[in-house]
Amino acid sequence: MSKATMNINFMGARKPLGILSVLLVIASVALLVTRGLNLGLDFTGGTTVVVKSPVDVELSQARADLAESGFSDAVVQHYGSPKEVNIRVAPKEGDDADTIGHDVYAALKLHNEDLELLKVEFVGPQVGDELRDESGTAMLLALGLMMLYVWFRFSNKFGVATVVALFHDVIIVLGLFSLVQWPFDLTVLAAVLALIGYSLNDSIVVADRIREDFRNSRQNDPTQIINNAVNATFSRTINTSLTTLLVLVALYFFGGEVMRAFSEALLVGIAVGTYSSIYVVSNILFMMNVSKEDFLIPEPEEIDEMP
């Protein structure tokens, strides 16, 4: 369907979807407060061990072997290939950080003598706390800079609407991670920061068209103007989202465990971001009583040079 013939009444569903967005944000905040995030070792500290076997490693068997040796809470994942395994063990009081990695390796080697130790890394709790604090600061800084950019490029109302949409996307993604307790580490944080950029870009495309339609359209009904603008940009939005989703689906299925959390965060984030670019931004604009006067270009004042 061409842009000229597309005439979907997007704004007809804006009120119920606006209520849905509010409920999702409230539920996400409640989950973050009550359950929190399942922080990975990047933030909590702990030991990471990478081993390699000449044959494929069964993760269930590796977990059972570690449980027999007292590492029942270890996180075991394939690392790039079925022959390589990444084991992460959270820190415990009384454990020797210098030996715990080799103890994990020894527990696995009991059942696989050909196992090779590739890497042992330890992240102390203090380093994890610093990473967590700095990561939160980076996220807030990114949101703040985005707000300033939109504020100066468009108008105060668009600045508020776009930043609300960004917070909406980030909070819902974090709420989902809290609900299902997916591990939240630096890789996921990178995905959230990428989501902020993606969501902002999509919102700017829609906002730019809305601004131009308000300036050039002879209509005075904000609902119809925004509806026309969304219809005009909808095919571009869908094409961008689908091509990005294809890459993320490939990463999810073929990128291994290392990229799975990254792709999960962005898969959810892109779906939420595409939705918010249309409905969250428009709902906020309507709440602030957007009108044609908000986008009129002021005419330069004539200066009488005569004495």
Automatic annotation (TrEMBL):
The gene is secF. It comes from Alcanivorax nanhaiticus. Belongs to the SecD/SecF family. SecF subfamily. Pfam families: Sec_GG, SecD_SecF_C. GO terms for molecular function: protein-transporting ATPase activity. The lineage of its organism: Bacteria, Pseudomonadati, Pseudomonadota, Gammaproteobacteria, Oceanospirillales. Gene3D superfamilies: Multidrug efflux transporter AcrB transmembrane domain. GO terms for cellular component: plasma membrane. Forms a complex with SecD. Part of the essential Sec protein translocation apparatus which comprises SecA, SecYEG and auxiliary proteins SecDF-YajC and YidC. Residues 107-289 form the Protein export membrane protein SecD/SecF C-terminal domain. InterPro entries: SecD/SecF_arch_bac, SecD/SecF_bac, SecD/SecF_CS, SecD_SecF_C, SecD_SecF_C_bact, SecF_bac. It is a multi-pass membrane protein. This is Protein-export membrane protein SecF. GO terms for biological process: intracellular protein transmembrane transport; protein targeting; protein transport by the Sec complex.
